[in-house]
TrEMBL record:
This is Phospholipid-transporting ATPase. Its cofactor is Mg(2+). One of its GO terms (biological process) is phospholipid translocation. Gene3D superfamilies: Calcium-transporting ATPase, cytoplasmic domain N, Calcium-transporting ATPase, cytoplasmic transduction domain A, HAD superfamily/HAD-like. Residues 27-50 have a biased composition (Acidic residues). The active site is at 454 (4-aspartylphosphate intermediate). Residues 1-63, 769-788 are annotated as: Disordered. It comes from the Eukaryota. It comes from Neogobius melanostomus (round goby).
Length: 1247
């Protein structure tokens, strides 16, 4: 039976009265409610079927139709759509893809538009305009223009480099070659030139250029194997088939050139698991489904040649539809700085206005009467005050200097390089280093609260290994000698005795091999015979297994290594090698797996005429069907519990001998059920139940779904850092839960809550009902803190399927009603409290808030059977309602939407599928590197950036506000000198820049050992408005000290030469020198990690200051620029006075002493976790060194007695194909010499 049909038929209809009393969604069905089309809607009521009289029908858009070998057909007017005014273009997308943002014409305007979204850039542009006005300017206009151009230029170059990389990637893909049938000839054409309706020819290992309807193949019966690594990160093969009629008639070039079939199909959508269409050819209609489609991004494998018809191209393909929107990502610190710029600007306006008013009164009272201030302009006092206001806006602009943004970009670039250069994140096996694909999000890595991870290929390797088994009550799999003596450590079995063995297969129990080879243990022989016969695996000429799931491949491979080799199958026979004998068994019936049965059976006629049923399945369903005479049930159950505690995936194996009469009677009922028209699946299930009774237990298998290295330790470490991890996967519930335990996401002390439990206890419904009876005053805008959902103590975990997620969030009902009513031309009526629908948008939003609150109370959340769009929706809900910083990590195209939606997107690279990497912000090869990315690089980046910003604001407030105090003694005249320009450029920039690049409170090993050090970043406690105002008041305090202590020293002083050095230039030298000493010593106090470079920067900055100051006041520069440098010898004269040096020392000491005291008291009385680790750093480092010398203990799995999931494919196997005989390859003529090349390739379910 067709898989798509099965999935569709198994989808239950939502009950109109809500979830109560309804069957609920099928946990095994992947719901795509947001993409359901009119074709899929089932009639839900008589009302839906009746059209109201006089109802107006909205215009119905023509359905997509594709005509083979007719490009002109797709340009007809009915296939045109309006793009702008009267401009129209074809509704069919071209095959060229575009992921870049800019082109030659749009780069400058679009990039400038994006950059001027940053408030600071607009602020600097306004300053530049003010500085051009001669009456206002107090600084040369180029002092702002040059830094602004540098900032915009650096950012633009960085954006250009990133976009050129996207251009190169797009060009590489668009210029790939493929063979297209044009004018009766096969021509090599670039992908960009492929169009809808073209017939293409694909060869082995070719990437598929578009979504293509398969027509024919070189394999028997048009079977084709594809690898879907680009879609889902898996390298497992899936099979696709062409229609029988096209495969038989369209093998040659001339037949393909004459093909004129018309395809009617669904609209382009993002559903990777579904396709519905019809082919009209030679007046016959043929149904099409996903099994007939080759999706773009997949690769042809094990197939020499196949032909196909392009249905969707370029942006319309499913892989591109799953990409989601590219979002402009900004860090929380960036957003906070925008608001701080508003705050500083408001403060600046207030200060400038106050000083302008002061200047107005001063000029009216004093300035106008002072003859030496006469400038001949005749401006009134109010006019001069107005000009002074703008002058102060320019003078005091150093509160937000443009050098801040230059420094921030340099720091971010440096942090990105450190990530790229980290050898501990380099994966040598695949030669894959870590890669920071953006430079703007590094500090956000130190603030992650939620991680959303894919499962397959991200947490797991998608490699199944046969690890243990129990046969007739005896367990095997631990290291054991051939005589049965247990060992602490063993060596793998040597398979050289078996010419068919897979050399990659490892097994540690030599006693089981000896038992099987001896031929004395009938149960062991029956065990492996069952594994070699009861499956839907297919084999090709090279003895490569094609399995419906990697689990099946692992079991058949295990049987092969133990001497029971599956060799070949036809429509009604299976041939295996048993030791030295080759036996063929007649296959009488194959009872395939599905999600309800959770088992599969095969009925065989042995060479001696006996009829036997072999069955394997989940222990929960097998034990219900065992005979009362079955032996070893208790010992097998004990072994199953042990396997489950080790998070292995288990299967029970059993058999039943059937008499000829019993089989004949059952076969009649089976044939009758096969032709039933109504509810055929249920009829077949009932017949299967009749024969699968009174089974005899043989034993059980235990398979390990191999995790990536270090996954459990990484998850445990991140959990200690208070980072919550949600797994979002398309796998079934049992598999996802099993992996949850394997990787330590779920632990024994957690209370597991399932989606159906959430509905059954009506936790969400009760809250909805309560809100409905509340008075209107409690509605929007007055949300009260909600009570917790889980009142019991202890940890909680939530496991929910995509179907239940839609039920809880109303997504399915909402979409179905809207589509049904749109089809009828009616509007959606208002909801009532009785119909289970949200009454308004506010109620729907509150339901979402309730779900997010409930899920976030859990330590871990697993969402299984979810679609790519649902993954992105879950991420956006947490971002929206928790205001949390999120990270998504995945490895396939089905994760791209989630990666783009999260604040940080991480792609797993090194695999063949690179779609996730191309859309990510950071990429590396193994999940375990996430620990180092966050706890080391992320935490350091956040601490460095926060320390940099706090200090940068402090030093500029301290500097700028000195001008403010001086204004009260200078007639409020906004006059400045070269010191303003050089202060942030030369005197104080390098030390703080190096702190932002190199500082670390503790080293990387201690950062990993103490995950609690990560908490300040999540809380945002190192840089926020509180820290901003502390920096502001610290700057105010220091500016007061810097100005008024020298001012007091200059009031009544006498130099050694008997003259009073009371000129304001000497005063400026003292205040400037004090400021430079204070700023550089303050950053020294704040530096946690000293290097030679830091020492050089601090001492060098002070030396540069004195060097430039003496040059500015030298006679030589006065001779060259007499108009600009008029104070010859002022600096040397002032600094010859000892009491002025005493003034500098006093100013510096009074400024720094409170800071030293506060730091001492805070670290002594209220030490943070970081302070405590720093205090005992040497002890901890010594402990780490000692631990590294000792061997680390092996990871211990949980000890919880539970049933592991049924270790089989999530969809049906190949039973229908086998029974039809369509997919059977030609039997090889000989097998000599193949033993060394035999390998097993695991295969997962169809997409």
């Amino acid at each position: 039976m067709n898989l798509t049909y099965c999935l569709k038929m198994s989808r239950p209809r939502a009950d109109s009265q809500g979830s109560q009393g309804s069957r609920g969604p099928d946990d095994e069905v992947m719901p795509y409610s947001d993409d359901e089309t009119d074709d899929e809607l089932e009639p839900e009521s008589d009302e839906a079927q009746e059209e109201p009289p006089g109802a107006e029908h909205p215009p119905v858009e023509a359905r997509p139709s594709v005509k083979a070998n007719d490009r002109a057909y797709h340009q007809l007017p009915e296939f045109q759509k309006k793009v702008f005014l009267c401009i129209k273009k074809s509704r069919y997308s071209g095959n060229a893809i575009k992921t870049y943002k800019y082109n030659a014409l749009t780069f400058i305007p679009l990039n400038l538009y994006e950059q001027f979204k940053r408030v600071a850039n607009v602020y600097f542009l306004a300053l530049l305009i003010l500085q051009i006005i001669p009456d206002i300017t107090t600084l040369p206009w180029y002092t702002t223009l040059i830094p602004l151009v540098v900032v915009l230029g650096i950012t633009a170059i960085k954006d250009l480099v990133d976009d050129l990389a996207r251009h190169r990637m797009d060009k590489e893909i668009n210029n790939r070659k493929t063979e297209v049938l044009l004018d009766g000839r096969s021509e090599h054409t670039q992908w960009r030139d492929v169009q809808v309706g073209d017939v293409v020819r694909l060869k082995k290992n070719d990437f598929i250029p578009a979504d293509i309807l398969m027509l024919s193949s070189s394999n028997p019966n048009s079977l084709c194997y594809v690898e879907t690594a680009e879609l889902d990160g898996e390298t497992n093969l899936k099979f696709k088939m062409g229609l029988r009629v096209t495969d038989e008639r369209l093998q040659g070039v001339h037949e393909l050139a004459d093909f004129d079939g018309l395809i009617e199909c669904e609209e382009p959508n993002n559903r990777l698991d579904k396709f519905i269409g019809t082919m009209l050819w030679n007046r016959e209609r043929y149904p099409l489904d996903l099994d007939n489609m080759l999706l773009r991004g997949c690769k042809i494998r094990n197939t020499d040649v196949c032909h196909g018809l392009v249905i969707f191209a370029g942006a319309d393909t499913k892989i591109m539809k799953n990409g989601g929107k590219t979002r402009f990502k900004r860090t929380k610190i960036d957003e906070l700085m925008n608001y701080m710029v508003y705050t500083i600007f408001a403060l600046l306006v207030l200060v400038a206005a106050g000083l302008a008013i002061g200047h107005t009164f001063w000029y009216d009272q004093i300035g106008a009467k002072a003859w030496y201030l006469f400038d001949g302009k005749g401006y009134s006092a109010s006019h001069r005050g107005f000009l002074s206001f703008w002058g102060y806006i320019i003078v005091l602009n150093t509160m937000v200097p443009i050098s801040l943004y230059v420094s921030v970009e340099v720091i971010r670039l440096g942090q990105s390089k450190f990530i790229n250069w980290d050898l501990q994140m380099y994966y040598a096996d695949k030669d894959t280093p870590a890669k920071a694909r953006t430079t703007t999000l590094n500090e956000q890595l130190g603030q992650i609260e939620y991680i959303f991870s894919d499962k397959t290929g991200t947490l797991t390797q998608n490699i199944m290994q046969f690890k243990k088994c129990t046969i007739a009550g005896r367990s095997y799999g631990n290291p054991t000698t051939a005589e049965g003596v247990s060992l602490d450590r063993g060596r793998p079995v040597d398979w050289s005795w078996n010419r068919y063995a897979d050399k990659m297969f490892q097994f540690m129990d030599h006693s089981l091999v000896a038992t099987v080879r001896s031929g004395k243990d009938k149960d062991a022989m029956e065990f492996f015979k069952l594994l070699s016969l009861c499956h839907t695996v297919m084999v090709d000429e090279d003895m490569v297994y094609q399995a419906a799931s990697p689990d099946e491949g692992a079991l058949v491979t295990a049987a092969r290594n133990f001497g029971y080799v599956f060799l070949n199958r036809t429509q009604d026979t299976i041939t295996i090698q048993e030791g030295d004998k080759e036996n063929s068994y007649e296959m009488l019936a194959l009872l395939d797996f599905n999600s309800d049965r959770k088992r599969m059976s095969i009925i065989l006629r042995f060479p001696d005429g006996r009829i036997r049923l072999y069955c394997k399945g989940a222990d929960t369903v097998i034990y219900e069907r065992l005979s009362a005479e079955s032996k070893h049930t208790k010992s097998t159950q004990t072994a199953l519990d042990i396997f489950a505690n080790e998070t292995l995936r288990t299967l029970c194996l059993c058999y039943k001998d059937i008499s000829a009469g019993e089989y004949e009677a059952w076969e009649r009922r089976h044939k009758e059920a096969q032709v039933v028209l109504a509810d055929r699946d249920a009829a077949l299930d009932r017949v299967y139940e009749d024969i699968e009774k009174n089974l005899m237990l043989i034993g059980a298998t235990a398979i390990e779904d191999k995790l990536q290295d270090g996954v459990p330790e990484t998850i445990a470490k991140l959990a200690k850092a208070d980072i919550k991890i949600w797994v979002l996967t398309g796998d079934k519930k049992e598999t996802a839960e099993n992996i949850g335990y394997s990787c330590s996401l779920l632990t024994d002390d957690m209370q597991i809550h399932y989606g159906e439990d959430v509905k059954s206890v009506q936790k969400l419904s009760v809250r909805q009902t309560t809100r409905r009876v509340q008075p209107q005053s409690n509605r929007p805008g007055k949300r009260k803190p909600a009570d917790p959902f889980f009142t019991q103590t202890g940890k909680n975990a939530l496991i929910i399927t995509g179907g239940w997620l839609n039920e809880i969030l109303y997504e399915k009902k909402k979409k179905r009603r809207r589509l049904r009513l749109r089809r009828l031309g009616r509007r959606l009526p208002p909801s009532s409290p009785q119909d289970g629908q949200p009454m308004n948008d506010w109620e729907k939003e509150q339901r979402q808030v309730d779900f997010v609150d409930m899920a976030c109370e859990c330590e871990a959340v697993i969402c299984c059977r979810v679609t790519p769009k649902q993954k992105a929706n879950v991420v956006s809900l947490v971002k929206k309602y928790k205001k949390a910083v999120t990270l998504s990590i995945g490895d396939g195209a089905n994760d791209v939407n989630m990666i783009k939606t999260a604040d940080i997107g991480v792609g797993i690279s090194g695999q063949e599928g690179m779609q996730a990497v191309m859309s990510s912000d950071y990429a590396f090869a193994q999940f375990r590197y996430l620990e180092r990315l966050l706890l080391v690089h992320g935490r350091w980046s956040y601490i460095r950036m926060c320390k940099f910003l706090r200090f940068f604001f402090f030093k500029n407030f301290a500097f700028t506000l000195v001008h403010f105090w001086f204004s009260f003694f200078s007639g409020y005249s906004s006059q400045v000198n070269w010191f303003i320009t050089l202060y942030n450029l030369c005197y104080s920039s390098l030390p703080v820049l190096l702190v932002g690049l190199l500082d670390q409170d503790v080293n990387d090993k201690l950062s990993l050992r103490f995950p609690k050090l990560y908490l300040p970043g999540q809380q945002g406690s190192l840089f926020n408005y509180k820290n901003f105002f502390i920096s502001l008041f610290h700057g105010i305090f220091v500016s007061l000290i810097i100005f008024f202590i020298p001012y007091g020293a200059f009031l009544q002083t006498m130099g050694q030469d008997g003259e009073a050095p009371s000129d304001y230039q000497s005063f400026a030298v003292v205040t400037a020198s004090s400021l430079i000493f204070i700023v550089n010593l303050q950053i020294s106090l704040d530096t946690s990690y000293w290097t030679f470079v830091n020492c050089f920067a601090v001492l060098g900055s002070i030396a540069i200051y004195f060097g430039i100051m003496f040059d500015i006041h030298s006679a030589g520069i006065h001779v060259i620029f007499p108009a600009y440098f008029t104070f010859t010898g002022a600096a040397s004269n002032a600094l010859r006075q000892p009491y002025l040096w005493l003034t500098i020392v006093l100013t510096v000491g009074i400024s720094l002493l409170p800071v030293i005291c506060i730091q001492f008291l805070s670290k002594t009385i209220w030490p943070s976790v970081g302070d405590q680790v720093q205090r005992n750093r040497k002890k901890y480092e010594a402990d780490l060194e000692r631990e590294e010398r000792e061997k680390a203990p092996a990871f211990q799995r949980g000890r919880r007695s539970r049933r592991s999931g049924y270790a089989f494919s999530h969809s049906q196997g190949y039973a229908d194909l086998i029974s039809s005989g369509r997919s059977i390859r030609r039997k090889p003529t000989g097998r000599a010499g193949l033993q060394q090349s035999i390998r097993e390739v695991p295969h997962a379910e169809n997409i």
